[in-house]
Write a structure and sequence with these properties.
Layout: H1 25-46, H2 57-73, H3 77-90, H4 98-104, H5 114-128, H6 136-151, H7 156-159, H8 167-176, E1 183-185, H9 196-205, E2 212-214, H10 222-233, E3 240-242, H11 250-260, E4 271-273, H12 285-294, H13 307-326
Parallel strand pairs: 1-2, 2-3, 3-4
Length: 327
Amino acid sequence: MGAKQAKGQEPGGASPQHGWRRTPTKERGDILASLMQKSGDRLSRGGVATPPPPPPPYQRRIGMIQQMMLMAKQGKQDETMEMLKTLRQDLGMESTSLDDVLYRYASFRNLVDPITHDLIISLARYVHCPKTEGDSLGAMEKVCRQLTYHLSPHSQWRRQGLLKRKPQACLKAVLSAPLSSGALDLSGIPLAARDMERLCAHLQRHASTLVSMEMGFSELTDEAFLLLLPTLAALPRLETLALNGNRLTRAVLKEVTDALKDPGSFPSVTWIDLGNNVDIFSLPQPFLVSLRKRCPKQGNLPTILEFGESQVKEEEEEEEEEETGNI
């Protein structure tokens, strides 16, 4: 006699209470093909999928520095000079001759990043005028390391292990922690436009205590920053704002300059770091003058070309032109 069947169970079939069964291979293939076809139809209707954004400017510049040092070690002086020229152009130092780099640009006092400028000048001296005595290559390598360090993220978020977390978890963890001495450090945490609403709410809650804010190397774009700008401008005690190493352009610089013209915006700010972004290489005089008005006790900002000095310079140029004409 055969075994007695369970009630409600068909021979060779699965229980109706647990009706899962393995899909045959052929059917699985048909289902996958159908899903891929539908996905392709959606892409064709909605356009081509958006490619990932290019790497941030600081990564490109660090790659140039490393490539330049490698060429120098291999004795390829012409290639090294060409790479230095490309790096200078990427940093807004458009000149191509050594004289322009060493003298003409050395007189610029409204540079957004004077440290990078000085290090580039040092590199230009080593590349264009290599010394035969001493370890010239070692000295050049030291400058390259300094420039790499300056242009790359190296703040405390690396040491705190935040890199191992997901971006949203990092942002949530930082915004959940109490402010330490009025400082908010978001360096290295990718910030998208969708994060600005949460960040604005956090800033408004701590508006009376926030003194400094770090947002360097956070993938910040013009779109995201402009959503945040009104909230930042309304912070009554904010003194320093670091926005270096992001994807910001001159369009943002114009908006910030216009905001600074209003005495009610950024009332306590003393400095805004916009270095190492896409194409912000110098700061307009209205930007610098507005900062000076906000911190008169600090004295003259080193980046402002004083009227007296400018007048002396113009007189010297006129004298040189007269002497040239007499000759």
